Amino acid sequence: MTEREAVAHLLRRATFGPTAGEVDAAERAGVAATLDSLLAPPGADRGTAATPLPALGPDPYAELADKPTREQRQAANRERREQVLRLSGWWLDRMVAADDQAGEKLLFFWHGHWATSVRKVRSAPLMLRHLETLRRHGRGPLDALVTAMVRDPALILWLDGHRNTRKAPNENLARELMELFTLGIGGGYTETDVREGARALTGWVVDRRTGAARFTPRRHDPGPKTILGVTGDLDATAYARLLASRPEAARFVASRLWFRYAGPQVPAPADLAGPDTVGTLRRVFTAPAFAQSPGTLVKQPVEWLVGALRQLGVRPSTLPEQRRRQLLAGLEAMDQVPLRPPSVGGWPAGGAWLTTSSLQARLRSANLLAAVAAPAALDRLAAAPPDGRLDALARLLVVDSWSVRTRAALTPLAGEPRQLLAAGLVSPEYTVS
Q: What angle do CA 273, 303, 3 make, to 5 degrees?
C-alpha cells in the first residue's frame, strides 16, 4: 500500500469521505500526522460555524391544551414533522460542511449505537439535545457518556424509562442498557441484574415543556439493590457508573467501534479498548489488521451520500428546497434516515445495504447528485482528455483504481460527464470503503 493509499484508506474510514484535496494534504503530512489531526480535540470549525443550530421552536405537543381539538392535534403533527425535517436537513448539511469530519462521523456512530428514533420520541428539540449529549461526551471515557445517557430525555422516552416506577417497574431501558449499549450479549449479567437495574432507574420523567429529564422521588424504588455482585442503595448514576466500569463494557464498545470502522472481515486486536473513545480509535486505526481492510466495508447510505456531496462540492443548504427534500427522500428509499434508526439495535451493515431496492435507490440518488454537482467538479471531468476522464473521475471520487470490469463499463460514458459521474457513484469501487 502506497502512502497515498494509506492516508486515503484512513480518511475514508475516519470521515464521511475525503476530497481529493484533503488526500493531497494528508499525503504530504503522512499517516501519523494525519491521524493526530483527526483525533485532536476540535478547535475552531468554519464549517460548523456556517451551519448554526436550526431554530426549531418549542415542542408543539408541549404547547397543546389539556383537551386539544382534532384541528389542534393535526396542526401539532404538521409542525412536528416540519421540525424533524429541519433538524434532519441541518444535520445532513453539518455532516457535509464540518471541518471536524472525524468528530461528525463519530457522532453518527454513537447515534447508531444508542439508537433512538424520533418516530417514538416525537420531538425534534429532544432529539437535538440527544445529539448534543452524544457530541459532548462521545470522545471521552465511557463513564461520563453512560452517566449522561441514562438521564437523556429522548432515550428515556424511547425505552419507556418514564413508565418505570416503584409500583410498576419497566425493564426496557435497563435491559438495553446492558445488552446493547454497555456489556453486550453474554456480558456477564443475569435477569436478576436486569430487574435490579430497572429498580435503580425508577423515578425519572420527562417534562416536554422544558425538554428536561426530572427525578421524582415518590416514583423511585429506594433501598438496597444488588447488581453484578455489588450491593448498595444504587440510583441511576451509580448504576451507569457500575456498568461503565466493567471490563466487559470497555471490550464491547471497542468491538463495536472496530466493527463499524474496520469491519468484521478482519480480526480485532486483543487489547483494543483504550482509556477513552479517542484512545480506542487510535488503536483501531493503527492496528496492522486495519491496514489490511480496504474495500471490505459497504458504505452505509448516509456515508455514501455525505461523502459524495463533499467530493462534488455540494452543500445541501444551498440547494432549492425541493432538491433538499429529494436528498432526504433518497436516504429514506435506501432505508437510512438520520434520527430514524429502525430499532434499538440500530442500522444493519454489510450486504444488508446491497438489496435490489437499495441499489435502485442509490442509482436515483446518484443521478440527482450528478445533476446538482458543483460546476467545478464537472469542469474537472470535462477538462480531462477523453482517454483520461476515468482517471479524473477516480481522483474526484477518491477511488484508488478501477477494476477492468468497471473501466469497461465506464469507458462508453466518458463523453458525457454527468452520466459518467452518476455511474461512478454506484460503481463497486465507490460503494465500498
A: 65
In DSSP notation, 182-210 reads IS-TTSS--HHHHHHHHHHTTTEEEETTT
Distance, in Å, from the CA atom of 299 to the CA atom of 261, rounded to the nearest integer, reads 11
**Counting every residue, how long is the chain?**
433
Which 3 state secondary structure label does DSSP give 215? Answer: strand
Q: Record the cell numbers describing residue 64, joined without a space.
A: 397543546
Domain assignment of residue 104, yes or no: no
Q: Is residue 151 part of a domain?
A: yes
Global pTM exceeds 0.85? yes
Question: Does residue 119 form part of some domain?
Answer: no
Secondary structure (3-state) at 404: helix
Distance of alpha carbon 335 from alpha carbon 322, whole angstroms: 20
307 and 247, same structural domain? no
Report the alpha-carbon distance of residue 392 to residue 176 in Å, rounded: 47
For 361-407, the pLDDT digits (tens) are 999 999 999 999 999 999 999 999 999 999 999 999 999 999 999 99
User: Which of these three, 273, 292, 311, is where a domain ends?
Assistant: 292
State residue 149 phi and psi, 5-degree precision. -70, -30
**Domains in the chain, number:** 3
**Domain of residue 257, residue span:** 141-292
In single-letter form, the type of residue at position 376 comes to: A
| Strands 204-207 vs 225-227: parallel, antiparallel or unpaired | unpaired
d(CA 190, CA 129): 32
